[in-house]
Fold these 2 entries.
Entry 1:
Amino acid sequence: MVSSIGRKRVVIIGGGIAGSVLAKSLQDHTDVYLIDPKEYFEISWASLRCIVEPAFAERTLINHSEYAPNAHIITSAATSITETEVTTANGRVISYDYLVIASGHDDKSEFTKKERIHHYKQDQQKIKSASSILIVGGGPVGVELAGEISVDFPDKKVTLVHRGSRLLEFVGEKASKKAHKWLNKKNVEIILEQSVNLNSKTNGVYHTSGGQSIIADCHFLCVGKPIASSWLKDTMLHNCLDNKGRLMVDENMRVKGYRNIFAVGDITDVKEMKQGYLAQMHSGVVAKSIKSLVNGKEKLEAYKGGPQMAIVSLGRKEAVAQISSMTMSGCLPGKMKSGDLFVSKTRKTLGVKST
Ligand SMILES: Cc1cc2nc3c(=O)[nH]c(=O)nc-3n(C[C@H](O)[C@H](O)[C@H](O)COP(=O)(O)OP(=O)(O)OC[C@H]3O[C@@H](n4cnc5c(N)ncnc54)[C@H](O)[C@@H]3O)c2cc1C
């Protein structure tokens, strides 16, 4: 840890991709405090592969201290803020010159890497010992998990139940249809416009809202995680949350009405797809601004937006992609994402060994 005397203090709340990239980039310029409830950063878009192949998690979980050795890591959740300080669940009160909120989505993951890997091993065991599996939720998490299981465990009977009228509602209909067709080809049964009461399971049978019975040995709940902003509702920032609970930011990614409080990543109300590569662009913009501010310059960077692109992997080799208004599926988008799931690229961004 380098000496922090005389440096401006930046407190970053949240150690997802947005907060981690920012902490890495500011740690040698300012006195950085990174607050996250876990000891590690997880490459979240690679987590479904870890369920079918727990060893993959050795590369997708990176301790915060590994990529940000010069930052102070506070392993706890932020619970409150004032104009000068942040309070955490473990009773720390940390003052700041600049605050960056990057709390993205609520994450109830395990505290250590070891515990997280153990969880993945249990999930894999659950799949191995089942002959039929129910996946609840047809957003990116449910679709990617169905893809992983159907490719790695083709003998398992997979049923996916989704409340919406089509899979992957965050992309266009063409991409939804391509994913639907691909899963059907892999014998995944898809039930739309129904929900499952998971407590209603009797003798290995789950019941849907539409009266259907699904025989499954186990289930995975794959519904999206809520935005992690409920803790802000009793703070001075309650007026800065939009009706979806996102923080309203200006073109410099500053929380509206505040000069020294920024927000980055999925927690922000920027009108764009919520994607990790865009979260990293937010962090790049804020890093430049804070470096300039601590050097006494008032020059702030503006966020101009990035390409609108989403790739949903379908097992290890294929994917469906929407790039602007173009949709494609198969091995070409699969080559872009599905083999390594951007793990090497992300590790490189964070400056950790690619092994
Ligand atoms: C299945 C799936 C596939 C995806 N594929 C891609 C892809 O291919 N490419 C891509 O670019 N994006 C992809 N995404 C989107 C990407 O995962 C998100 O956009 C990205 O993770 C957002 O990063 P974030 O740092 O803003 O938030 P998060 O990743 O949600 O991180 C937030 C962090 O803040 C912490 N936190 C929460 N509350 C508090 C608190 N009170 N105090 C302190 N810390 C807190 C959390 O524990 C977490 O560590 C995918 C998403 C899913 C679900």
Entry 2:
Amino acid sequence: MTNNETTTETEAATTPVSSTDIPAVNAPSTPASSKISRDNRSTAGEVRVDAPRMRCSEINVYYGEKHAIKNLSLDVGNAEILSMIGPSGCGKSTFLRCLNRMNDTIEICRVTGSIVLDGKEINDHTIDVVPLRANVGMVFQKPNPFPKSIRENVTFGPKIHGLASHKDDLEAIVEDSLRKAGLWNEVKDRLDQPGTGLSGGQQQRLCIARTIAVKPEIILMDEPCSALDPISTAAIEELMLELKENFSICIVTHSMQQAQRVSDRTAYFHMGDLIEVGDTQQVFTDPLHQLTEDYITGRFG
Ligand SMILES: Nc1ncnc2c1ncn2[C@@H]1O[C@H](COP(=O)(O)OP(=O)(O)O)[C@@H](O)[C@H]1O
Ligand SMILES: [Mg+2]
């Protein structure tokens, strides 16, 4: 048993937390005893941002009887990288999949609540998920290029979404997307070779190029570097920092170092609850919630 487990509930645990309660980055750390107690599962920190790109309110997700996301509200800001961290099984991927209706593909999965993107409710079952998934693109853990040429991997999306059909326009998209993904110089002389012939890190950048090619507003990344070596990981992280000028990025990562290196805000999940969200530096140096502190100090997960 650690000292913290004997900590009694403090006033902070029952007082709603507002953004004004977040200490300045260089403020002395909140003493452990004033952290919000482990049994308080409402979200600490400010879930809302000014002029959000996407606004999620009271999201619940169920797999049959299993309640996987519990009453979650969170904004995705403009031109920001938002990282989602937490122990395995806490609901990070489930939440990410809410943002482009990918949970629709799981038969037993039921999602309630509101997600507004560009003034439109994406949980409205009359919306077409095909353009939604172009606008909110997804990059997976394991690079999954199509079994086609490098060029066709990039042109596939623009063709099916009707963004371009003329050869010159498609070629321009290929070059632009591969440049933005930091891959152009490595592949420009072999665009007709299979995408699956690239190294793991290059394949992941090809998947990012494929996502960018359909001009998304938001890019979702679910542990995009966990199958990559450190050099490819560094390349992807550098790329994310460049991409955030034009796109909002939501990344699930099991690497706390990665979250700290790339993200502007960090959200900590625990057993289906969004426990805390805030400025990345604050979350890692002076979390408001005891559960966040347990996780970042390696006491849990
Ligand atoms: N397709 C599924 N069917 C049933 N349960 C699922 C499915 N996907 C995830 N879950 C359950 O939902 C919870 C959250 O899972 P997940 O979102 O994958 O967590 P994380 O990404 O944080 O590891 C877990 O208990 C998991 O077992
Ligand atoms: Mg996951």
